[in-house]
Amino acid sequence: MHKISTISKHLSQMAALCVLLVASGCASYTTPGAGVSVGNLSQADADIGEILKRQPAATFPARLAVARIQASGYYSRNNGNCYGTGQYCVLTTRDIETEKDFERLSKTAMVADMAMMSRMILPAKLESTKELRRAAASLKTDLLLVYSVDTGFNIENTDIGPLAMLSLGFLPTKKARVTSTASAAIYDVRTGFLYGVAEATTTEEQRGTFWSSSEAVDNARVKAEAEAFKKLVGELEVLSANVVRQHAQRPPHS
User: Fold this and answer.
1) pLDDT digits over 70-106, tens only?
2) Is residue 25 part of a domain?
3) What is the domain range of residue 170?
4) Burial 190-229 (b: 16+ CB within 10 A, else e)
5) In this predicted model, what pLDDT tens digit does every residue of 211-227 receive, in sequence order?
6) What CATH number did the domain enclosing 107 receive?
7) Residue 15 lies in a domain
């Protein structure tokens, strides 16, 4: 009887704890999906010898297609479904990019005109840059800019991985940090030649008391990612100037 009484007591305590957590507004937040190593995508459809044979074919300034990609199955609070399956998916909903960001991109030395990638011109299966280059070719563009954002969450020096659930009710006294890295690569649409890569990272650090709701956590995520993308645009401005300086005088590859 004593054993049954002890078990009953523990169950009552657990029930009381659950009620207390609910009453205190305990919430949860699912971390977003992972990013993609954009500079390595072109290696998925070629061996080393073929990669080394690739040559630039664009003349500058050139027409640029832009695509944001994430790991297959990507999810975040403010975005719709990421399109496509395979090695990556294409995200066409904007939540961290601003018109000013894209305006800066459109004014870089290498760009004559710019077009955003649409899921209407993409296949359902996405394995390498080849699918993106075909879509870019249908837009009559010469260059393909691919970018991805990878965001990590850290609580008291413990890393929280992608698509993981955070129980926000346990965070009030803890230090919370969001780190976002935006990376990009520029490819030649015709040949798959990689002109260069760029990367930028930013961190938002707060006390857990600010993460009282899933909306508050996502606001921190969006702020970190938006700042990382803004910094990435600055890096792309530098890369653009270098690409034009190095390749503008070369005759187009036939």
Assistant:
1) 999 898 887 767 999 999 999 988 889 999 999 999 9
2) no
3) 31-247
4) bebbbbbbbbbebebebebeebeeeebbbbbbbbbbbbbb
5) 777 888 899 999 999 99
6) 3.30.160.150
7) no
